[in-house]
């Protein structure tokens, strides 16, 4: 999980392991969460699937930053 502070909000990028079969390559579902003062502001659904954990986390962070920019 990757996190940062942006314009007074805490934003989180999540990578959720998705492995449909034992021999299938690992994939990661991306999602994002926004909190302020330890309270949930908004959470995304699944934003997409990625081959790398870091890519999924970055997609979640990008979503959260864009949400704040569009609602600020």
Write a structural description.
- By secondary structure, this protein is of the alpha+beta class.
- It contains one helix and five strands.
- Strands 1, 2, 3, 4 and 5 form a five-stranded antiparallel β-sheet that branches.
- The relative contact order is 0.28.
- Structural class, by secondary structure, is alpha+beta
What is the count of β-strands?
Answer: 5
Distance between the termini: 24 Å
Look at the structure and give the mean pLDDT. 93
The radius of gyration over CA amounts to: 13 Å
Number of helical elements: 1
The helix fraction, in percent, is 25-40%
What is the total number of structural domains?
1
Biggest β-sheet, characterized? 5 strands, antiparallel
SSE series: EEEEEH
Chain-wise SSE layout:
Elements: E1 2-6, E2 9-18, E3 27-36, E4 39-43, E5 48-50, H1 53-71
Antiparallel strand pairs: 1-2, 2-3, 3-4, 3-5
Provide keyphrases for this structure.
72 residues; elongated; Transposase
Briefly summarize what is shown.
The chain has one domain (2-71). 26% of the residues lie in helices and 46% in strands. The chain contains one helix and five strands, in the order βββββα.
């Amino acid at each position: 999980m990757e996190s940062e502070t942006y314009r007074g909000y805490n934003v989180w990028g999540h990578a959720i392991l998705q492995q449909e079969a034992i021999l299938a390559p690992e994939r990661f579902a991306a999602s994002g969460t926004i909190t302020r003062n330890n309270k949930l502001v908004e959470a995304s659904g699944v934003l997409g699937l990625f081959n790398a954990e870091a890519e999924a986390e970055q997609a979640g962070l990008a979503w959260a930053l864009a949400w704040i920019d569009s609602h600020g």
